[in-house]
Amino acid sequence: MAKLPSYLAMRVPLLDLSEQYCALGDSIREAINDVLGSGRFILGPKVDAFEKAMCAYYNTPHAIGVSSGTDALLAILMALGIGRGDAVITTPYTFFATAGCIARVGARPLFADIDRETCNIRPSAIQECIEKTCQPDASGAWKTKNGEKLRAMIPVHLFGLCCEMEALHKIAERYRLVLIEDAAQAIGAEFPFPERTAKAGTMGDAGLFSFYPSKNIGAAGDAGMVVCQDDELAQKLRTFREHGMEPRYFHHFIGGNFRLDEIQAAVLAVKLPHLETWAAARRAAADFYGAELARARLTEKIAVPAEPYRERGLTNHHVYHQYVIRTPMRDALREHLSKREIDTAIYYPLGLHEQKCFAYLGYKKGDFPETERAARETLALPIYPEISRDAQRYVVSAIAEFFS
Ligand SMILES: *Cc1c(COP(=O)(O)O)cnc(C)c1O
Question: Does ligand 1 have an atom closer than 6 angstroms to the CB of 97?
Answer without folding.
Answer: yes
